[in-house]
Design brief:
Length: 317
């Protein structure tokens, strides 16, 4: 690598690290625990995911007024697809986001179909897709998070199908937690990810009025059900820790604990779950980092579990 190439790479990695620092405090805490090569890949993948999300929503690093309903949403998504295809073909241009994802694809053998699947999730947002059943919601979770888990597994050096399944499960759990935490905020802009069947069973509307305070008690029951749905996915992800390198297992165990705790806070708060955004404190994160270190070490004493709950979502690719 020439000095010029190294300078470009440093810039790309720094851009990704800043995207994580600003966009996701929970993931930032875990990402610091990766080995340097894995951390570089993780931050570059995150930067691409964050950029795509922001372009579709008209935000900057997850902040600002969501503008995903604008008439040009489909055009913006089409441009993202084209930029991503060029990056996968080794022609990323000068944008550090696409230089980064090109490097991730090249180094870790990421299949372009995974990137396309992720963009398909944003297409569902642009189209104002509605989710009737839990299976419909899980299909969305696969596209926006499960497939990211699969790509992260490859960045961590593990591409065996059984390991990819566990990685997918963790992504699914994360997204189910996110949906429960953000349901009121999402509903206010017309995005309803909860299964319409579940809402109907509680007498709840499947439109923007779901965000109104009068529905909080019933909505809390639906959100609690969704958090419960995430539990077997978190359990499955834990069973995959022995397959990962030690530092990767430490990071993943930390992220798993942090996100799982967010879901439990949503459950515990009941109808007050959305009075303030559910999050974890710095002290809580530090405790989970320490606990995750013990979990990672203990996972060295176990073999990866070959059995997986047959009732969990099956990734399509």
């Amino acid at each position: 690598m020439t000095a010029a190439d190294a300078a470009v790479e440093d810039k790309v990695v720094a851009h990704g690290a800043e995207a994580i620092r600003v966009g996701s405090h929970s993931f930032a805490a875990a990402a610091r625990l990766f080995s340097p090569p894995v951390r570089e890949g993780a931050v570059m993948l995150y930067a691409w995911c964050r950029h795509c999300d922001d372009v579709v929503d008209g935000q900057v690093l997850g902040h600002g007024q969501v503008d995903g309903a604008r008439d040009d949403g489909a055009a913006r998504l089409a441009e993202l697809r084209e930029q991503t295809r060029r990056a996968c073909a080794g022609r990323p241009g000068d944008d550090p986001v696409f230089q980064g994802i090109a490097a991730v694809v090249r180094r870790h053998g990421i299949r372009p179909v995974y990137l396309e699947q992720h963009l398909d999730g944003f297409a569902m947002d642009v189209a104002g897709h509605r989710y009737t059943t839990l299976d419909d919601t899980l299909g969305y979770c696969w596209r926006v998070a499960g497939v990211v888990g699969v790509m992260m597994s490859q960045i961590m050096g593990r591409s065996e199908p059984a390991v990819l399944d566990r990685a997918c499960d963790l992504g699914m759990a994360f997204q189910l937690t996110n949906i429960a935490r953000d349901v009121v905020e999402d509903a206010a802009i017309g995005r309803i990810y909860l299964p319409a069947e579940w809402l109907a069973a509680e007498g709840l509307p499947a439109d923007a009025t779901l965000a109104e305070p009068r529905y909080r008690a019933a909505l809390a029951r639906v959100a609690q059900r969704l958090v419960d749905t995430a539990e077997p996915y978190y359990d499955s992800a834990a069973a995959g820790l022995p397959a990962l390198p030690l530092r990767s297992a430490w990071s993943i165990a930390t992220a798993r604990s942090v996100y799982r705790a967010i879901g439990r806070k949503v459950q515990d708060r009941g109808a007050a779950a959305w009075d303030r955004r559910a999050s974890t404190t710095g002290t809580e994160k530090a405790l989970w980092v320490a606990a995750a270190a013990a979990q990672a070490v203990a996972s060295r004493m176990r073999s990866p579990s070959a059995s997986r709950d047959a009732g969990l979502f099956r990734r399509p690719v």
